[in-house]
């Protein structure tokens, strides 16, 4: 899943907290636009610690109204979908714009541009029909129809969903795009199956007897691994399937995972191994221990893909109770990566804060697992009260639900800067996009969520504090 992040253009005029967060602590309110972008780039429309899926969906709809700038909403959706790979929220926003914006010529171009795969058309239509029913607005039909016309036979065949309730051919019949050879074949059911590894597995699962299906799937997965037909990322995403259906190729799987040249060539980052690691921790899969050892080695190889940061860096990792789950996993791995790559100092904070040391000779996963989580509350003030040297940058990893000491650490941060005569760049990561900020000052950048592009974004901000603002504002939107 693609989680993450964008710079929020902070209000530079605020000197005191003006709202409260979910935990009841004082915080700085984001503008509607900033909160909207933050949610789009961090939510997968699932339940979170402080907010349910329904509440998140309702908040997105509310923010679309509050933003009161449909073109900005559309640009944010395009950025979320096309730059950060966020799918479900882009379908929701497209559906909401189709309902609220009428008679604007740019909307049909937006609907066409927010579609990257044929199934985006189905999901957007499915959302609109489920929430608003018929009739479907003409601009939505035209935009989605134009998008469908871009796809070739292979792409249409790959996402046709013949066994789904809402098929690609149903979407074509609803939006009635201009005819093309590929679409005509789809409607006439004349498309040849797309020759992908997914298709091979689908075909393997179409036997009539259960035993035949199991044997066919086993043979299919074994062949895919032995013949190296899976790219590196596909290999990572299918660790469970390989070990479930073809455990006899575990050695070949490990050999490919630990191919250092493949790791570097794929430019895979440490965070992209997380899903595979979590899969191995969840079940008793044959060969799981050997594959986990391989992943440990591969993650260490991937450190070569992480850019270096000059100067002194402090990582402050929230170890409070609300960080349990994926934020804790991501935060621990991020901390371990930067400690190993750059020699950063590491601090954990909850009710209070303290420095801890990691063994840089440990594997990245071992180092991450050694970071203690104390539960308790969230005290941002303690970070700056306990920091004992001048830092060029401070990276804070949290869900931003500070409340101990009142919440936002305005005075402790100012005191730290004065004590060491320093003005550090602060990267404050909201790992859940909960909608409030802990800092309003200059040189403090609040980023929401997560993705494998995090280091690239930090590099840009190190060089140019306005880099991401420029990037977001420059999203093209045809009239």
Helix content: 40-55%
Mean pLDDT: 82
What separation lies between the terminal Cα atoms? 31 Å
Strand order of the largest sheet: 1-10-8-7-4-5-6
β-sheet strand percentage? 5-15%
CATH class of the largest domain: Alpha Beta
Low-confidence stretches: 1-30, 46-52, 403-407
Structure classification: alpha/beta
The biggest beta sheet reads: 7 strands, mixed
Count the beta strands: 10
Features:
9% strand, Rossmann fold, 3 domains, seven-stranded mixed β-sheet, 479 residues, three-stranded antiparallel β-sheet
How would you describe what is shown here?
With 479 residues, the protein is an alpha/beta fold. The protein has 3 domains: 69-187, no CATH class; 197-304, no CATH class; 307-473, Rossmann fold (3-Layer(aba) Sandwich), CATH 3.40.50. It is 50% helix and 9% strand. The protein has 24 helices and 10 strands. It has helices at residues 32-40, 53-67, 70-83, 88-100, 106-113, 118-131, 138-148, 153-158, 168-175, 181-187, 197-204, 210-226, 232-237, 239-245, 250-257, 260-266, 274-282, 288-302, 326-342, 364-369, 381-386, 410-420, 454-463, 467-473; strands at residues 7-8, 19-20, 26-29, 313-318, 345-349, 353-356, 393-398, 425-430, 436-437, 444-448. It has a 7-stranded mixed β-sheet with strand order 1-10-8-7-4-5-6, with helices on both faces. The protein has a 3-stranded antiparallel β-sheet with strand order 2-3-9, with no helix packed on it. Helix 19 links the parallel strand 4 (313-318) and strand 5. Helix 1 runs parallel beside helix 3 (70-83) and helix 17 (274-282) packs antiparallel against helix 18. The chain is globular and about 70 Å long. Mean pLDDT is 82; it is low at 1-30, 46-52 and 403-407.
